[in-house]
Amino acid sequence: MEYRRLGMTDITISEIGFGTGGISKLMVEEDFNEQSSAVNKAIKNGITYFDTAAAYGKGKSEKNLGRILSKNSSNFVVGTKIRLIPEQLENAYSEVIESVEESLHRLQRSYIDIIQIHNFITKDRNWPVPLSISPHDIFKEQGILKAFKELQKKNKVRYFGITGLGDPQILDEIINTNEFQTIQIYYNLLNPSAGYPVNKKFTAIDYNLLIEKCKKIGMGIFGIRSLALGALTNDTNFLSGDLPLLSIGSEYYKDVERSEKIKSIFAESDESISQSSIRFILDNNAISSVLVGFSKENQIDEITDCSGKLKINEEKMKQIKSLWDTDFQ
User: How confident is the model at residue 298 (pLDDT cuts 50, 70, 90)?
Assistant: First the structure.
């Protein structure tokens, strides 16, 4: 495992992080032995960063992760998130304080390394995907940022972050305040627009080179949705039912169709499409860590083996860019 500095913070973390979200299921279900075995496997393979959220399994992810890490004497970096629903926004300050205190209790920790906003961020809470907040909710007198700063004063959180989802123009405004030290950015082989320019034919949301903008101001960057909810794996039937949409234009059924063309480029490769997808993200040295949600312990070796590998070669990248330029047509 190789390690990278988290922006301008004093934190160094594994370039592959352990995501504990509800979609991958592992950390929000009831098999504690399986959870413990997987986390300890990740630790053995060199993972030092664990990403969770109060919303994952309604607190189950934090609770299970806390039970496991509390029994290990090693020094890990843990990030969690707060998500406010519309009726909580009027009292955002007190709601954030309460949420973080509850997270600390579940995680069995005295402080959180990185506290992050989990909501989409938009101009006026108006977005096709629910649960967005506005800059006003963050920066108002009794807003989210004030709560974060109060928790920091009390040594209950170290650094602040956002989830870089929502209106790209508003995200630019947020990062330019220099109030946040980290950001989670949607970035994968099916929507590379946070790291590569895309043209007007591109129908997924354009994050307009957000990675480079964040790098310039020293933010630590986490890559998220690296496997496009499973579209960039060999098991695209892993999920069913109503699937959460994080990024407009990247609905799962569309990404599965796009992924077939990406997979054809790597058809003769010795590595899995999942490994190629992770390697693509790690090729960008502005990324501090790529977060991967593991559903089974045996996936951990597959993904951690990507650390330190050579970049995707120029010929393959040329073919991939051609797909982006034609919107995968």
Answer: very high
Q: Alpha carbon 46 to chain centroid distance?
A: 19
Q: At what angle do helices 314-325 and 252-265 cross, to 10 degrees?
A: 150
Q: What is the structure's pLDDT at 241?
A: 66
Q: Could you tell me the residue range of the domain that residue 124 belongs to?
A: 3-325
Token couple for 75: 């020094």
- Closest-CA residue to 222 (of 304, 162, 301): 162
Structurally, the chain folds into a number of domains equal to 1
Q: Which two tokens stand for residue 16?
A: 């592959």
Q: 67 by DSSP, 3-state: which?
A: helix
DSSP per-residue string spanning 264-286: HHTTT-SS-HHHHHHHHHHTSTT
**Adjacent-strand bridge partners of 158:** none
The CATH code of the domain that includes 213 is 3.20.20.100
For the full predicted model, state whether its pTM sits above 0.85.
yes
